[in-house]
Amino acid sequence: MISIKTYESYVRKANFFEFIGAKRKAINVMKEAVNQSFSKLDLGSGYIYIGLMYKELKELSLAIQYFETALDLCKTEQYPFSPIYKKILECFIKNDESAKALNWHTHLLERASYDKKFLKLKKMNLT
């Protein structure tokens, strides 16, 4: 068996499984990735990937666990804005986790100090 060396290689492999409709296999690949010694940003990205897969499988509680792990892990890192953060916040709301949504919404808005695109989240209705 060939060992995967880079975070990008894990993502490519997971994307392939996702593309063919094997979301659980994609999740397993990324669970393997987040157990490697990659950067916090790569690991956070991996946790978000897993969360998004669980969200698509309508397993919101699991999705939220992975989203929170990613956000907690990268709390002190500078990362660029992505529209995925809106999906994450919506997932919290959909799973009746309004307090968590509000907490992370505030946290993400504070990131506008280095990336103004985070202000796009300002107009979200979190109730």
From TrEMBL:
Pfam families: TPR_8. Keywords: TPR repeat. It comes from the Bacteria. Gene3D superfamilies: Tetratricopeptide repeat domain. InterPro entries: TPR-like_helical_dom_sf (IPR011990), TPR_rpt (IPR019734). TPR repeats lie at residues 44-77. This is Tetratricopeptide repeat protein. It comes from Planococcus dechangensis.
